[in-house]
Structures are given as structure tokens and as C-alpha cells.
Amino acid sequence: MNSKKIAAVLPARALIAGAAAALKERIEDVNVLNVFPVPDGDTGTNMSLTLESVVNDVSKLSDDASMEELCKAATHGSLMGARGNSGVILSQIVRGICEGMVASEGFEPVERLATAFEKAKEVAYQAVRKPVEGTMLTVISDMARAARAAADAGLELEEALDGVSAAAHESVRRTPDLLPVLKEANVVDAGGFGLVIVFDAFVALFLGREIADIAHFDPARSNAMQVVPVDDWDDDEFLYCTEFLFYGDQLDKEQGLDYLGTTGGSELIVGTDGQFKVHVHTDNPAEILGFFLKQGDLAEVHIHNMKQQQEAQSEAAADAPVEHKSIATIAVAPSDGLANILTSLGVDYVITGGQTMNPSTQDFIDAANKLSADNFVLMPNNKNIVMAAQAAATALSVPAVVVPTTNVPASFSAMLVFNPGANNLDDLAAEMLEIAEDVRCGEITAAIKDSKAAEVGTIKKGEIIGIVDAKDIVAKGSSVSEVAMALLPKLGAADCENLTLLAGEDFSDKDLEALAEEIEAQWPDLEIDNQRGDQPLYPLLMACE
Amino acid sequence: MAEKMAKNQSKVAIITDGGCDRTSAEAREFGFDLIPIPLAFTDGSPSSSDDFGVRDFWEALLSDYESVPKTSQPTKFSYEQKLQEAADAGYESALIITISTGLSSTYDVAVMAAEQAPIPARVLDSRIVTWPMVILCKAAIKGAEAGLDLEDLLVYVDAVRDTMSLLMVFDTLEYLVRGGRAGRTAGLLASALDIKPICTFESDGVIDSVKKTRGRKKAFQTIPRLIAERYKDTEDLRYAMLFADDTAPAEELHEKIKEADLPGKFLGMNQIGIVVGIYCGPGTVASLHWRDLDPRDYITDKS
Fold first, then answer.
1. Domain match, A68 and A199 both
2. Which helix or strand (DSSP H or E) is residue B297 part of?
3. Which residue of A has its CA nearest to B190?
4. What pLDDT does B183 receive?
5. Could you read off the pLDDT of A60-106 as tens digits, one per residue?
6. What pLDDT, in 10s, does the model give residues A147-183?
7. Among A244-248, A311-315, A394-398, A527-531, whose mean pLDDT is lowest?
8. From its phi and psi, is residue B268 left (phi > 0), alpha (psi between -120 and 50) or beta?
């Protein structure tokens, strides 16, 4: 990809890339709006990765691609890259805008804007079974209303875009009034905020305004330009893909590009105001870094050996042929330990991911493509991955169902009733879900920020907290074992026969044994199965059934 | 020799084999006969299920797996001899009920013997093993005494078999593996979790897991549910408990069944012996449910 050329020939592609880059720059600003003080599915990361996938697909188009081709690529890219619920909703918004743009071809620009946003709103609401207000959905809805009002009032495009932007900002500000959980946590909705960042960047680039203009929400942050990392490591001429940020007032971009052209290929320099991102394929990264070091400062230097990368990819692709199955199962787990348990229960493929890294729709499809089966059962094992799994189930060319498990132990139980010879996939999924829903899951982690929760009051950063069914913080304390004991009654242990303890990577075998003994003494009727899950961030998962 | 034959009040002799885990003497008290299963110790010395009883077996298994004798199938000659004894004792026909063809080829041997028998003889594959075979033999006696002829009796006993459900919980799958009988349960062996499958003999007589549960307590809680599902509103339901080396788990499961307030008349606790015990191992527990069908419903008009 060469953004410089695209910017000159195909503005739409550059606009998309620019908007994606703007969001990527603000990822942490969005992530920090997490309601829960736990390392949870990160909205900013998910939305950014979703857009990155759009940029990837769009960049494959030829220079003379039509609007229809562009929309098709954007829709496909966003759907395949969709991660987390926010990513899935964003992908639907992209799809709606694309459909609206194609459908309104030939109309006045502001009418097209209104049509596109109304379609985006419609499609986004359809994607969610129980729409919740005070989220991205409210924001897209308010944007659509503003766009329609602008069209009705006969505004010029620039005024209309500013009007939509203003409505979006107001909508985001209003989200805490609509969603009490936001108010309690003193944040605005992360997804809505992310949407505004993307839209404002798009508008700024479209109208030729300074990128700096889009930093409405958090002026304290620097506006360093960054481009989406270029995944083009298939260069057979040069060995190293070299990328870095360069800070220096004296750089002449043209001169810099000329220099890069003499030492490598695929050269790229983007940015303004003394902040640049440099990308080049070369056999001599040291020389290039030296050249830029003489003129300023470097940051975030990435050098990848493209040959090794390619070999690793081909090795992965050359895996032994897989056994053909009538029904294959795919589940998500955050660690090798949990993945091993799932595999021992017959799960055919485990996608690495979970709390902090939500797999995308494409990840599910890739997993399915690595297997050979007539049908697929997908278990997301996290509420924030359910929608990506559902999108994948729809996109797969063979029948696929999602058993919407919201934690890993739930999928253990679901596998106990998995029947590889089942005739009716929907019945099988229903049976698997029924047993999975009987599992009450408790998670223990350390709070990542000061917070408060209805049941336990004030929570200090670093304090150990116990969460039930991934939503309610019901216990806190100074040690994992203390919180575990407090969590048991909340998990309904008195009505359960079996308790699974899954030790995280930071919880030792010794601590696990000691905890199991303590539980056994206090809950003699519980049959305890303690296992190593080695999951990150959560020293202990507890599942009662 | 005739006096060795068990007596029942009908003209049909009922003959089973040592797969029912009883000795010939015990069987005779119930009114049927059996062919003991030949056994061979590791050093080659022979024995039979009549001489090496249920208690001997568990004692041997718990001390040293290798000290347990290997089972083989009864000979065709032993069946021919038994059928001759039945004819000599005045029986007009004989019904042979064999251990499941899923576990042994005794059925084939019995069929060959029955074809050359001095009296009409039919062979039924019980598709099951241990105490349920005794139940089927008792049902056969009841049917014969109710006047069923050999053909009707075969249908009747097979119908009782169809009403049976033997739900077993193994404490370990290790013995199934050692004995090479993991069969359809093989997939569970690799599991990292403590999974207690509830196993049964499928209609083809092969062991399969009907339900996989997490831990023994969950299994014990699940069994009454499975029973309730199958036998809801069954008035002629009967049941028995089976245990391996120890009665405690069977008593625990029995408590769960009683608590669930299911229909069914309890007919006692019985010990599993060598034929299936070598595969299920110590700690195994099972519930056996069946319907006490009325044999008179199985009399067909031959005129």
C-alpha cells in the first residue's frame, strides 16, 4: 500500500485509512472508558482492529475502483475484522453507510448523507437482539436524525457534516443519562466515543481541515500522526520491513522519500508538523535509521524480518491434513491451559482470546477453514465475543450455530452433551446451551482502577475483587483465597454438587491445594475438581454447577 | 443326572450362563440353571465361575490385577450336556438366555448346541450382563409358569429386556482400558477434567455412556432424573441396586433415588462379579430398573 499515491488518486481510500488511523491513535482514550475496573474486552482496541480490517480490504482495490466496489470491500473488511460487540456494531454501521451510499447514487450529497446514516442506524439496531440506549446505537441514531434534518433544511454538505458531528458529540455526552451504569462509573459510552472519533477524522480529512481539529474530547493528548501498520511482508526483493515514528522540524518529505527510494522499496512517509511515520522495505535498516537520526528523534522502531515471517506462515499452513467431521467444535480460550482442557473434551479448535483480546469474525472463519466439517458449533466463551461468533456463523458456507457461552467453564459442560453425530444442529446447540447456563462462573482479579460497586462499595485499585457471571462485583478483599471463600455463596454453592477451580498463571499449585482444602472443610458436600487453567489476569476462575 | 436340574413349575427349562455372576447352586434356588464360565489363572490352572465366586474375584482384583483369572466362553459340549439333562428331567423345551453378544460369543456356542438339542430349544441374547440376567431368567420362569410356549416366552423375555435400564457409574475408566473394552467411551479417557460418565448397555449390548457428568455427586443426582424421564407413571416398575467391592456408594445412590420419590418397588442390592467387574473396577455402582410385564399379554393364538 502506498498512502501517498492513494491520497492523490483515490481520496475515499485515504479518508478511510485516515479515520482508522485517528481511532488507533486514540485507542487508550476509548479503552479507559471501561465501566468495569477489570481487564475486560477493550472497546477502543476492538473498534480499531475492525477498521484496520476495512483498510486492509479497501487497499486491495485497484485505483479505478467504483463506489460499489469500494463499499463492497469496506463491508467485507469490517464484517470479517469485527471484534467484540462494539466492533460488530461498527461493522454494521459501515455496512449500512455503504448500502445507503450505493442506493442513493445520483442524489444530492446531503440527501446521500441522510440516506446512508439512516441505513446505518437501521442495520446497527438489527444486529443487536436487545438494543440498549446510551450506547453506540443511540449515537448513530442521533447522527441519522441530524443528517435527515440537514437534508430537509437544504443545508450545504459542509454545514450538514458539522451538524451531524455536533449531534454525535451531544449524543455521547448524553449517554450517562441514558445508561445508569455509565453514570455510576463516571464515564461516557466508549463505543459512541469511538464512533465520534472516527466520524470527525473522516470529516476533517474530507473537508481538508487540519487533523488537529478532531481532538475535541481530550485536548491534553498529543496529535501525533500514525498510520495503520502495513502488513505487506511479502516482499521478495528486501529482507526487512522497517517502520518508525520520526520527530524533527527540518525533514523535507520529498527528499526523505528520495533517500528511502535509493536504499529500499515500498517507501512511505506520512505526517505533518514535525511528526512523521516512516515505512520502508530494505536490506539495511541501520543505515536508514542513521539517516533519520541525524535530523531528529526516533520512536516506536519496528523491524521485522519478512522472510522469517513468511516461512512461519507457510509452516503453519502446511499442517497435516485434518480429519473430516460431521460436526466440528470451535471455542475461545485465553490460555494454553484452558485450551488443553477444551481439547481433552473434544473441542476441535481453540482460538486464543478472551477478556483482553476478543477474536474477530475472521478469526472464527479462519479456524473453521483450518478444519474439515459439514457443520460447526462455535463457543465464544465471553459475552463480548458472542456477536463476532454469530456473524461468523452467518458468513460460513456450511451450517454453523453459536452456543453463546459467556465463560470457559460453561463450554466444558456444553461439551459433555456434545453429540458428534447429532442430526439437528439447532437442537444440539439448545441442549449444549441449557447445560452451559447451569454453570455459575466466578472470576477473581485485581481492580485496575478505583471504582465502586453496589454490593461492595468502594473499590481501590489493586484490590482483589470477585465477579459473578461476568457482571456483578460481589466480593472484595486482600487475597484471592479470601475473595474465593466470599464468592462461593454468591455462586449458589449450596445448591451445587461440583466446583471447578481453575488456577490462573499467578496462582500457585500450593495456593490452589490450600484453597481446595479450605473449601472442602467449609463445603463438605461440594466435589472439587481443581485444574490449572494458567489464564492471565484472573488468578482464579470458579465454576459451580 | 436328572436331579441336578433346577425345578420350575412349567415344561420349559431356563438356562443361562455364569455371566449373571451367580453360581449354579444359587441359580437352582431360583429355579433356573446355568453353565459356569470357564476361568484360567495366570499360571494356567483352570477354574470356573462356580468355584471362584464374586467375593473371591473382588479380593483378587483389589490385591493384584494380574491374579484375576481370565474368562473364556462355555463349550458347546457343556450346553449339549445341559440340554440333555433338561430333556431327561422331563422338560419339553428350553430357553437359553446368554450374556450379551457385545461382551462374549457364548450366544453362538449356545445356538449351535440348541440346533442339535433333544428338545426344542431357543437362545436369547440378553444384551446385558450380571444381575439383570437373573431378572430375565426369573421373568422367563414366570412366563413359562403362566403357560407361555417357547416362542411366546422368547418374545416376552425380550420385551422385559427392552424395559430395562442399567445405569452404571464407574469410579474410574482405567479398568475398561486395561480390559480393552473402552469401546464407545474411549473418547472420555483423555479428558483432563474429572468426568464420571453414566454408562449403560445399549440395545446392541455394547457399553456406551448415556450422559457425561462432572464428578460422582453430579452423576448420582443425574441418575434419578434419567429414571424419571424414562419411567414416569410406570406402575409395574421394579428396581435393584448393584455394587462392586463396596456397598456404600450403592447405598448413597439408593438414597438419591428414594429422595427423588420415583415409582418402583425396590428388590434388593446385588454384587457385580467377574465378567463385568474386571472392566468396571472397584467403586462401581449401578441402578437397574425394569418393568414387571404381565406374561399373559404375550400369549398368542396359535390356532
1. yes
2. none
3. A344
4. 55
5. 888 788 888 999 999 988 888 888 778 888 999 999 999 999 999 88
6. 999 999 899 999 999 999 989 988 998 888 888 878 8
7. A311-315
8. left
The beta-carbon neighbor of B191 closest among A344, A497, A545 is A344
Is residue B131 located within the same domain as residue B276?
Answer: no
- Domain residue limits at B139: 2-37+73-162
Q: What is the mean pLDDT of residues B140-150?
A: 95
Closest Cα in chain B, distance from residue A374 (Å): 21
Residue where a domain terminates, one of A404, A420, A437: A437
pLDDT tens string A494-524: 888 899 999 999 899 999 999 999 999 999 9
Which range of residues forms the domain containing residue A258?
A: 240-312
Residue of B169, B209, B210, B214 to mutate when probing chain A, most A C-beta within 10 A: B214
Q: Among all residues of chain A, which has the CA nearest to that of B191?
A: A344
In the chain, the amino acid numbered A251 is L
The answer on pLDDT for A340 being more than 60 is yes
Q: Do A545 and B193 touch (CB under 8 A)?
A: no
Instruction: Show which of B140, B162, B184 is a domain's final residue.
Output: B162
DSSP sequence for B100-152: PTTT-SHHHHHHHHHHT-SS-EEEEE-SS-SHHHHHHHHHHHHHHHTT--HHH
End-to-end CA distance of chain B: 37
Mark whether B134 and B180 lie in a shared domain: no
- pLDDT category of residue A218 using cuts at 50, 70 and 90: very low
Percent of chain A exceeding pLDDT 90 equals 45
Contact A344 B192 (CB under 8 A): yes
Residue A455 and residue A424 share a domain: no
Give the one of A340, A345, A498 whose C-beta lies nearest to B215's C-beta. Answer: A498
* CATH number of the domain where residue B246 is located: 3.30.1180.10
Q: Which DSSP string corresponds to A225-246?
A: ---PPP-----SS-SEEEEEEE
What residues of B are in contact with residue A438 (Cβ under 8 Å)?
Answer: none
Contact flag A527-B195 (C-beta cutoff 8 Å): no
Provide the whole-model pTM: 0.67
Cβ atoms of B168 and B285 closer than 8 Å:
yes
Alpha-carbon span A144 to A132, nearest angstrom: 17
Q: Return the pLDDT at A403.
A: 97
Q: What type of residue is B149? A: D
Test A417 with B212 for CB contact under 8 angstroms: yes
Which of B162, B184, B213 terminates a domain? The answer is: B162
